[in-house]
Amino acid sequence: MTKRLNIALLPGDGIGPEVMAVAEQALTLLIDRFQLPLSCHSFPWPSHAWHQQHGQMMPDDGVDQLRAFDAILLGALGDPGPLDDPDRFVLPDSISLSPLLALRKQLDLWACERPARWQPGAPQYLSDPRANDVDMLVIRENSEGEYSNQGGRLRAGTPHEVATQVEVFTASATERLIRHAFERARQRATQRHRPRQFKNEKASQVCLITKRNAQPFWGDLYTETFLRLAQEYPDVDTHHELVDAACMKFVQCPWRFDVVVASNLHGDILTDLAAVLCGGPGLAPSANLNPADNNIPALFEPVHGSAPDIAGQNLADPRATLLSLAMTLEWLAPHHPALGNAAQHLHDTVTADLAKGNDPTLTNGAQATGTRETGQRLYALLAP
Ligand code: IPM
Ligand code: MN
Predict the structure, then answer these.
(1) What residue's CA is closest to ligand 1, atom 7?
(2) Region 81-108: what's the mean pLDDT?
(3) Domains annotated on the chain, with CATH
């Protein structure tokens, strides 16, 4: 008998509930159309509103409740703050964003995959026509490094204050991350959307990002691990960039990158840049995975944040969340072939609509249609 799967929906804060409403309706239509063995359950936490009522972003057993699901889709977190109401209670980022970091760490979702492929119709901020060939996968370390949350403040508030923020890099986390990058590169060689650019290059490439000229300890650990594992993947090209140079090359020649593997913070920064290369944050999906353990629910989310400046105005682009939902269904596809079909249909529907120049945020100069109207237009195509 087919296993019934459960997806947890976490709308969150800011524009999160608006984009999630579109994703939830799309999912309902897909379940019906493809007869997916799937149910979804929406949670009022983690959120600012939940915090106001209960004094915390989510219940004590929140992570354990979510562990029981097969996948998690998150809208956005981050408290919008007092935009026009000075009396409104504001949560510091360290509290309002903590559930996201807690989920990544406690569920051990150690690989964050952020695909960046430019699609026809998306805004193109670069003038070189080759920028339309951007098709990379940034794999970000998601469990330690600069996000280890070790350190403290000594003599806080005095002129002699000392703040420390310790970065932790372990051999085991480094090895599993880099091995995963090589595996994904090999896999992409069989599914490539666009031909490779240069003569004499192998079918795929992994580019390692470090700052080993200034941060040699983890830089060397990453580099040595990378070179050692590369020997097991003679079919994959290898490349290295320092993170600052990578920023330049992401703008100068982003079509040259294939799989990019980076530390937690470097990956965070590079994926905002990669999102803009593909039209902006409204189109960038992501997955937080534990590739070694299929029983741990993966967490999918748009790369964008809660965008408080446009929250509640029907201006958010729901397509990054829809593409994240497509990644969710794709990830669940080994359970049932209909899930893979639904994922492909959702992805194709979003990109076909994009190709028509529709843009809910006006960034492309086209007619703005709004979050809800974008949803309506896509629902009609998802389930005609
Ligand atoms: C992201 C976000 C988070 C991060 C923030 C909200 C903590 O920027 O998912 O990219 O830095 O990981
Ligand atoms: Mn980020």
Answers:
(1) 97
(2) 84
(3) 1-110+284-384 (3.40.718.10), 124-278 (3.40.718.10)
